[in-house]
Amino acid sequence: SQDLVFRSHLVTGLIETGRVYIPEDAPFSNDFNSEMTMFPYAPHDDVVAATVVGLQYVQDVAKASRRSRNS
Asked: The whole model's pTM is what?
């Protein structure tokens, strides 16, 4: 959906800067990489959706942590 495309752009920087690590020998790495690189044209996007939610959570926690340190 367009909403997932928009939300994925919010976390793309984390992936592009190498801050997300997926072990090459992980049993899910081929499926993960395939779905991520085919998005939004892949027949399924549940891996992308779960990844985006997880990375948004990490970003939110990091922002909250920085705010509390600066208070």
From this structure: 0.85
